[in-house]
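ok trying again, last paste got cut off:
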Amino acid sequence: MLNLIAIFLGFTFFGAGMSKLFADHQFIGWIGPTWLVERLEEYGLGFYGKFIAYSQVLIGYMLITTRYKLIGAVMLVPMLLNILMITISLEWRGTPYVLGFLLFLNGLILWHYRDFWNILLHEGNGDKSIRLEGNKTRFGDAVWFIGLTLQFLAISVSFHQIWIGLALSLIGLVISLLSFRLDQINSVRKAEIT
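nice, full thing came through this time. structure:
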């Protein structure tokens, strides 16, 4: 269930960022506004609008691939709160309720990882006995990062050929999801050696 929530939140924000940045906003997403960057450019804030969109892509990608869902969920809190304050300030009806629901879902992820908060808040308290173990490998991390890089490349390519941009985005997503399989293969090899 936790992965489904992360994937939903990830798709929501990954799609929102990509649809703002893709050529003619031709990317799948269910929340907007896709015209944010153009509107902010009128006030000299186009760079800020792109920063928001790229941040949505990064945070959403962390969640949708579930490899870094805790980091993505932590980063999503200030993103959601900022969007919530803007929608309340602009008196948008309904949107604050949707954002409240998204905050609730994100809170479920953060609650699931509540044991990590003591370590984060107290920086391990100097306790050398705290050791976090996981199945992730540096090679898997590198493969995941290649998938993320393809997302940002897809944005640029979309302005020249939309279908190639969409294909690069899909290929990047598949590559990042394969990083989990590579981690499993690596852990099996380590077990065979020992």
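cool. The two ends are 34 Å apart (CA to CA). The mean pLDDT is 86.
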